[in-house]
Target: Release factor glutamine methyltransferase
Amino acid sequence: MRLDALKQQLRRRLHESESAALDTELLLCRVLGKPRSFLLTWPEFEPDEAQLVALEALVQRRLNGEPMAHILGEKEFWSLSLEVSAATLIPRPDTETLVEAALSRLPERPATLVDLGTGTGAIALALKSERPQDKVWAVEFNSQAAALARRNSARLGLPIEVKQGSWFAPLTGLRFDMIVSNPPYIDVADPHLHAGDVRFEPASALVAGQQGMADLITLIIQAPDFLQQGGWLLLEHGWQQGTAVRQSFVERGYKQVESLRDLGGQERVTLGRWPGEELC
Model:
């Protein structure tokens, strides 16, 4: 079958995907070992039998709902190509809101910062790519995810210090100019846990107690023990949690508390500054 006809067939088969056309092209490129431009310039190309067998295996995985990031083993975030696996969350574009907010609040001088619950290392590596002079730490509870973050760090040539442990446990005695995190924040009863890509992602990276607020509150309460005076805490959270998260920041004593909206216009990141002398 010619490549142009095969593309049309695959788009029809993958029609339930919101990105059927893109999925088709990415799967073809993976099997053929060619760039996307090849699909346009060689419509008459005919894949061989082995390539068609390999393609069908990938298509069946997608038809079963498996995320493209898991099928391809990689996902782009902040223009970085990250290795991904079932041990971590798949980096989302909305999380770039957190990266942008962090970059705009870091001091001009070299700073120290930590990403808690780093997963693939996406946030930490994005910040390191923009701030090579900074000392960037990353903490991850899951050993497989921590190893994945280290591989991404090495492969991208972006040195970060990855520690395995729960939240602040591996950071005793350290203080940071900034703490960032995209922690679990979904309520266990949320019906979205049974739909889409999240079905294939680890529940431990998604679900938190207290209607999704438990880990957010833990970080808000404990972060001041690890922040420099005037240091920032930035947290990603659910689109309906902004009010509750801001209240927790204020009650703990943070200043300059505000929530920022994501690409879809929803409150997604709340931040606050731990007071130094100039903020008291």
